[in-house]
Amino acid sequence: MRSGLILFLSRLISVATGLAFTIMITRSVPEAEYGIWVNINIDIVTYFTLLSSILPFWIIRFFARGYKDSAKTGVFANLLFGIGSVIFYVILIPFLLPFLHISPNYLPIYLLASIQILEIYLISAFRPILRTVKIETLAYGLLIEEMTRVVLGYWLIINLGMGLYGAMLALISAFFVQFLVYLYASRKFLHGKIKWSYVKEWMKGSVANLYNIIGQRIAAFSTLLLIIICGEKVGLEARAYYGAAFQIASVINYTVFLVFALYPRLLMKQKSEDISESFKLFFMFAIPMTIGIIVLADSFLTILGTGEVAGEQINYRVATPVLRLLAPSILALSISQVLNSIIFSAEKFDLEAKISLRKLTRSKIFVIFTLPYFKALIMLPTLNIVLPFFTSDPVMSAFCLVILLIIANIFLLIVRILLLRRTLTFMFPWKNVFNYLFASAVMATFLLWIKHPTRISTTLFYTLCGGSVYLTVLLAIDKEARALVRAILVEIKSVLKPNQ
Question: What is the pTM of this model?
């Protein structure tokens, strides 16, 4: 519990730092240029980091089960994958920009982004190691990365007026610092030799991982359709509205880190109590965060920027309907990720450090890997039909995308629930979930009653007030929540006074 809470709290702190960094950009560049920023870091770079999570999927399964040399082997292999991806990116990006109707004037910043691709591969290789043995270090590395990004961002974007280039340099530098932290924390696990036999097994299993990731990227192509179908101006504005809404709604997904230790624990020893307790902790935070974002959506978007920037009017508040619908979609996605950990841990075909493709393709892991293709089947054809009707309305274009997204995410969540029913037996905490819903309803009533703020400080103040209302009501009606708070206080005291 302690490690999950530390990681979650670090993610919450990163909300403030991430929001600060986003505001620096949104208030310094036009909406279309913010669309370029989102396009680089969410649309394009993610396609060229496809392989970054393939080997880590197997590294954690081998490392958690005690196979020596799997850590060093995994880091070295992921580095090779990263170098190959950077080369491919640099060669392809000049030909990709015309296809996306993006001006060649932006080519230098797209090329600069290639550095972060290699950094992402290296950071991804260390995460499964630290997730198993030093999960708190993931939190500390994240905090250092976020603080570095904000400090450098303020200097480069605000003081020096470097705009997107300043933002990119700040991001690259912050990732490098995070890599150094993870490297130092993992150093004692990197001794030994590189076992190519492990790489051979991982490569066999990675055929299925690649199948899954390609499906995810095909589904993610829906965001690029905004630009391709709606054109550069309207499409980039729609992408900016969706990106701004996603920046806020993605906070809900941070609750997954509360149960981040569940997967390696279940790989080592399966206990149904761990699953039940993890769901309690997850929903205790995920439900109020989702409802809070839905209610205060207009305020959260307003603080991203309104007024005139670089001679153009910006107003992210118009994307309020997009954010309100995106929040429950992200909740469904987060629940699915928790269910993935449970389903994946129950599979034993690689228990002897050997991966049989035949057994893998017959496992529930492969079923999960197939689900992105169903998501793409729901979204892409429908967007091709619907978006041409809204090529002059960026808000409605983004809203259409989110409608399809929530339909797809709920459908895939139902499939995972059906898979889970025949995997592991555990008690789902229905009573606790109803308590969380009741406390969240009281909080929502309070937030609906107040006048929604438009300033950053007031918005954050009312957000804290809403959280206090939720916590007060929950502590009054849920004894397990009271026990959790006491346990957290004990953990804090043990950290502050380790020798007593």
Answer: 0.77
